[in-house]
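Give me the fold.
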Amino acid sequence: MKMIFATGNSDKMREIREIMADMEVEILSMKEAGIQLEIEENGTTFEENALIKAKAVAACTDAIVLADDSGLEVDYLNKEPGVYSARYMGEDTSYEIKNQAILDRLSGVPKEQRTARFVCAIAAVLPDKSTLVTRETIEGYIGDCPAGTNGFGYDPIFYVDEYHCSTAELSEEAKNAISHRGKALRAMKELLRQRGF
């Protein structure tokens, strides 16, 4: 059985394959499946964007299609960057610059007001074109400076109290166990199993 994940992000694909390893499916990225699409993510929620991506790819295949939309919500910044996390300050802006911009905007703000969360919504379109959606979060706060090299995106500035470090300082295993994407993927895996996949 084939499953196509609507992403071209190799870091994300590695995470997905690790978490879904115990399912008897071949997991392909869009590129590996030979699907080339420009998908406009114009939803206003993570769930809407995940469904937009999954449905666009599902129109090209009979395989199970999964897509995710995830991002960072910083409470002090009115939940920015939110659904615009990847496009925050422009799509080609490096995360080093994005992370620094968030740190600059929080300069002098005390820790208890720096609360934040990573959100991940995962949508699946099944071969019969029915859909499933899961949403999970990981709560934390924005640290004072970037730390760690294990993660990607906003990981170096997102700190988790129970580990006293950023998510970029966690091992792959520890991160997958607590991450928003890890939790949302495991919830999706459960829904797929209930459907007999």
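The longest strand covers residues 131-142.
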